[in-house]
Amino acid sequence: MNLAISGLKYIEEIKNGNYTIEEFVSKTLEQIQKLDGKLHAFLSLNDKAIDQAKKLDKKIQKNEKIGACFGMPISIKDNICVKGTKTTCASKMLEDFVAPYEATVISKLKSEDAIIIGKTNMDEFAMGLTTEFSAFGPSRNPWNHDYVPGGSSGGSAVAVRALECVASLGSDTGGSVRNPASFCSVVGYKPTYGLVSRYGLISYANSIEQIGPLTRTVEDLAFILNIISGIDDKDNTTVDNKNEDYLSEIDAGVEGKKIGIIKEMIGDGADKEVVSATNNAVKKFENLGAKCEEISLDMVDYSVAAYYTISATEAGSNLARYDNLRYGFDFPLEGFEFNSYISKARKNFGPEVTRRLIVGGFVPSAGFAGKYFLKALKVKSKLTAEVNEAFKKVDLLLAPTVPICPFKLGEKIDDPIALFLIDFNTVTANLTGKPAISIPFELSDGLPIGIQLLAKSMHDKALLQAAYALQNTVHLPEIQL
Ligand code: GLN
Fold this sequence. Notes:
Blueprint: H1 7-15, H2 21-39, E1 42-45, H3 49-61, E2 73-77, H4 104-111, E3 115-120, H5 154-161, E4 167-172, H6 178-184, E5 187-190, E6 210-215, H7 218-228, E7 258-262, H8 272-287, E8 291-295, H9 303-318, H10 338-346, H11 351-362, H12 373-393, E9 396-400, H13 416-421, H14 427-432, E10 436-444, E11 447-455, H15 460-471
The structure holds glutamine.
């Protein structure tokens, strides 16, 4: 049995009776046992996975109806609530928090008989892009263990690449699905804002974030999107996608499509290997019949500043509930007055979350809001107008997912500004609500480089079609695990 197969292939194998769900799930757990001591993709595992697999196998034996996932082992970032399991956000603050309810995406996956194999590592509260800010230790890049896997959904990307699951769900507030997808060489996707319910996702910056899948192929991604997307009365920011089928016509191609290459994202800040990969991707699209032209988006230069101002402000209010009264630890009140009690509680946050909360308290405060927060909102609307304007001329936008190649663990951990700037190519999709995908494209010195595509809001299907076309031109060497 081969773990290195796509989700769709897995379903075919199970349907054909080539092996049982139990066999595949056991093999997956063995893989985790073998590799995760080093890779640290998981924070916890589902100890009922084998029982669940057995039950599904019985259903198949008895010819009973079974959901579309056929027991596919899927991992979940540890900021998405799976009822009855720990959901820690990789934070000491939620170390013992057991989710009392199910996120909508999880109910949907379970109703299609997916097996939630475990919860994946991440930067604390999804703040970061290397997974080094996990309170429980970093994950490692499976291509080279000395390198970061990207983040904040680093554990998810590692688990998918290292065959520790078939697919994963992460969250993308400013690139957190696409960045690790690029660094680990998996497909990672941020849907149009509102396409996937956020109910049960522990909020970081709720006005811009989405849950998104990480998979080994674009088809798998479309398959999972079919399950998790759609309107949800528990999240009133969701939109009705009329049960769109993202998998049908995935091979429609890009003949005649116009693609704009975002000039600012291949400028001075980009590594030469990354620029060269981007040029190669453009050539591939041209060979596939697309028309490519460079396009300039002036507001992109301000996007990182606006992103960090807005996301810190929203984090400031979303994380106010971790005060040990509502969430956190239950330690006695005696000997404290109100402020000192809260302040003791807040010491459970790690350095990056603390930094964001300090900024998030300051930038929207009386006397400063006009200078910082409101200005950031203006950048957001100007950027959105500019991107909408660009989409009158082109069908898709293209850029490298990350401006630089993967780097070593510890290399940038003490330089927050350098880390923030690595989000330069990803935050535009979040600030404008557009769908965006990272597709594995090249290896440079044995480390992956991903290519990013963006589309108009609710044109997720066209985006996946273009991603599929590019994917089929790419042939990367096998990873040595
Ligand atoms: N690196 C960005 C941040 O730290 C993105 C995080 C994310 O998308 N969750 O905020």
